[in-house]
Amino acid sequence: MHLIELREQLTYLKPEDVALVEKAYQFSREAHDGQFRKSGEPYISHPVAVASLLAKWHLDAQALCAALLHDVVEDTDVSKEDIAAQFGKSVAELVDGVSKLDKIEFQTEAHQQAENFRKMLLAMARDVRVILIKLADRLHNMRTLDAMSPDKRKRIARETLEIYAPIANRLGLNALYLELEDLAFRYLYPTRYQVLAKAVKAARGNRKAIIEKVQEAIAQKLKEAGIEATVTGREKHLYSIYRKMQEKGLSFSEVFDIYGFRVVVKDVPSCYLALGALHSLYKPIPGKFKDYIAIPKANGYQSLHTHLFGPFGTPIEVQIRTQEMHKVAEAGVASHWLYKTGEEPIDSAQQKTHQWLQSLLEIQSESGDAVEFLEHIKVDLFPDEVYVFTPKGKIMALPRGATAVDFAYAVHSDVGNHCVAVKVNNELAPLRTELKNGDQVEIITSPTARPNPAWLNYVITGKARSHIRNYLKRMRTEEGASLGEQLLAQALRALNSELSRIDDAHWKELLREYRLASKQELLAEIGLGKRLNLVVARRLLAIGEEPADRKALGPITIRGTEGLAVQFAKCCRPIPGDPIIGFINKEQGLVVHTHDCPAVAKYREDPDKWVDVEWDPDTRRPFEVSLKLVVANQRGVLAKVAAAIAEANSNIENVSMEEEPGSAYTSMYFTLQVEDRNHLARVMRELRKLPDVARITRMKG
Questions:
Q1: Which of 26, 300, 457, 690 is the most buried (most CB within 10 A)?
Q2: pLDDT digits over 575-590, tens only?
Q3: Is 606 noted as a catalytic residue in this protein?
Q4: SS3 at position 565
Q5: Which domain holds residue 635?
Q6: How many domains does the chain have?
Q7: pTM for the whole structure
Q8: Strand, coil or helix: what is 578?
Q9: Which of 30, 74, 344, 614 is catalytic?
């Protein structure tokens, strides 16, 4: 029975396409065999009803097959691959798209969340047919909602009203939009619905004569003006009456325009001629005229809307449009995709898809049938945004290209500052992972973690960027202040004084001179190389009394854990045990070099630039060191070298090779991690044992 009813609606399809749809029906019926809906009907009745709705919009065979199969993957053992094998990749992709939308749970009633949810649904469905199947699925579910429990009815009705009806409106599916709203209203507010339906029914009898009289008068006036037109009277749907009562605080008796009239004419000039004729028949209500022909709605809808004072002063609404505009108003997106038989070109209506879609579609084919046309319609409705879920189901909108770190900062700056890892769709992923529509994102944090400067290379949101920079700046300032305090204490000791002997009055006077807000700020400037410790020490003492004599500055102890305020020069890579020297560098703070580093020669002349530093004997952390190895050009030599390094308990951070053409030797460059000079000596001893190693050099400068 189901198949006969469906077959009657497929007259617009080619015979081979009808055969494909019938094959999908048989496949779906067998897969759902033994399954029943809550109403007691066999489950196959639902996919057939969805396919029938799409057939009324004249959608292509692929969409109809997907409608028949849309619950098969979710509710049976059939996989996406099985569908692809039987019906082709496009049908499988459509079914997969609908399944993904079905998995999403709408969990909040907040307006902004509802808008995000609508956008995410549209963004996830790159092929608009996925949304059309989903809307038809929702409409049939709403028509059969009586079988559900009251709680479930209300939840589904609210979701329909807040999510799916606005999407239908956005796509220009007017009849579907109105029916979804009325059905949702009926189940969400059953008492209000019944009271209003009763009032409209009672009013219908009283006003019937007026409606007929107005319709006759309009038709007669247009005939006199020589305009061919079809005039129909219509009753406004219940939810729009209810919404008007709510928004304007009106009682039902105050809502006069529950009836409207539609005038359909042959072309655009006739629309404006009809408008003039009607304005001469009934007086227009000032400020109530809208020209959606000159400026169409976002969903492509076009009509002239005017409100008039009808007989007995009753306000009436009239819409004037062409046949083509009427088709778009009723069928929306689907009106452009009517199936064409043979090799006819797509007509102008199909090529002029809605304005809001035009910039987002890439129609690669100028002719061919609608299936080919649809194949190329991959829509990205919101190209600049992605919509992702938090673990609690909240939807967050982020710019396209946003990474897990951007998401972490969007949740909260503390989450961003302490994030260490991320799970995307319950699987661990790198923090630089680019997020996609519909991803569920969970950030893993640690109280000891802090932002990594490398994050600045891939975050794209201003919020993440500014928080990372501010945090790093604050950390640098705090670490700089700690180092600055050591440097100042060292300079004061050399001038026979101590930090503890400097009183508050001296500090205040100095800060006023330097125009700084706090002692912390001054110490940070010393630590970050913006001010010299000796100069500041002398100025502090000069405010009180001149020092009697000066002795040599004592060295600063380096532990290797000072953070951003102390940098180890990349040119010579100093390690514990190396004689070292420190240079005050603006913005970088204290930069530590080895004594014999060629890069420090130019600073030797300026004693104010460098400070004495020494290693803390208890330093226990890995330091990087660079080695150059000249090795015989033999097979497997890299593996032997790597094994020797591992044997000496060292890690390889980086390796590169340089080979002279025709040479018997290759140069290898390693960056290794060692604890100190003794550890480095052990590594080099292990390497020298290898017969293939000709020469080892530690690289500096």
A1: 300
A2: 998 999 888 766 666 7
A3: no
A4: helix
A5: 623-698
A6: 6
A7: 0.52
A8: coil
A9: 74
